[in-house]
Specification:
Order of helices and strands: HHHHH
Largest sheet: none
Structural class: mainly alpha
Oligomer: single chain
Shape: elongated
Strand content: under 5%
Length: 117
């Protein structure tokens, strides 16, 4: 739609790289990241995801986080950035580090915090 309506041009869209494990570890515990990457989630862990677990899901989440980081970088460089790929917006229970869930907004906040360092 953005292209069809001439609101944006093809060169306005950037392709993100997946976030690094280091980036993901800023908001999740090492144990949680290990479980996701190795597929060793407990039944309780899988229920916390609220979506079916797969290796493709992990790739998608890392890519969505990378998109938020790229959006933050673009905002700093160009004055605007947006992650059209979004991410998963889910309920949070407990603290950020204890949670299996992380909202798109929190990723965007963490992306900006990363850029400020």
């Amino acid at each position: 739609m953005l292209l069809r309506e001439n609101i944006a041009a093809a060169q306005d869209f950037l392709r993100p790289e997946a976030a690094s494990d280091e980036d993901i570890l800023r908001v999740h515990t090492a144990d949680w990241v290990r479980k996701l990457k190795t597929g060793t989630l407990t039944a309780s862990d899988v229920m916390k995801l609220e979506v079916p677990y797969s290796a493709e899901l992990v790739e998608a989440v890392w890519l969505a986080a990378g998109g938020s980081i790229l959006a933050a970088q673009s905002a700093l460089h160009d004055g605007f950035g947006s992650n059209l790929g979004g991410g998963f917006i889910m309920r949070i229970r407990g603290t950020e580090k204890d949670s299996a869930r992380f909202t798109t907004w929190q990723w965007q906040f963490e992306s900006c915090r990363r850029m400020a360092r």
